[in-house]
Design a protein that fits this description.
The chain is mainly β. The protein has strands spanning 5-6, 17-20, 30-37, 40-49, 52-57, 82-83, 90-91, 113-116, 119-122, 128-129.
Length: 133
């Protein structure tokens, strides 16, 4: 199931977009959502790493490929780094910065995320949900 969201328009400070219940996002797992960002439909990955929920645009900085384009996973074999399944570029999960020599210092695009007693939410001032018709 995909959630479609606009990301190029400001929203009120209280608006948030539902992702999933907290218990469904265990360490090392992820959810992939489709959203509108600057007028383009993009993929976002929402995941838990060392207890913290994080979200990034699902696009490698090395080449325009989704991190999970060849395998249904975004972490490397150790579970310590995000990894592009196409060319193996690895990223620090907390900062989104590439730690691979070829793209060292370049960063994934972060998306605001919040977790509370109700679950995991996208909460980003650039995000606006689509109207359901």
């Amino acid at each position: 199931m995909y959630l479609k969201i606009f990301v190029d328009m400001p929203i009120s400070i209280d608006e948030r977009i539902w992702v999933c219940p907290s218990e469904q996002l265990v360490n090392g797992s992820y959810r992939r959502l489709d959203i509108f960002y600057a007028g383009d439909l993009i993929s976002v990955v929402v995941f838990r790493y060392r207890g913290q929920c994080l979200a990034y645009r699902n696009l490698c900085v090395h080449m325009p490929r989704q991190l999970d384009c060849e395998k249904d996973m975004i972490f490397d074999a150790t579970g310590q780094y995000l990894r592009c399944s196409m060319h193996g570029i690895v990223y620090d999960p907390v900062t989104g910065a590439s730690v691979s020599t070829i793209c060292n210092g370049e960063k994934l695009t972060s998306i605001g995320i919040k977790e509370d007693q109700d679950g995991v939410w996208i909460k980003d001032r650039r995000v606006k949900s689509l109207a359901v018709t």
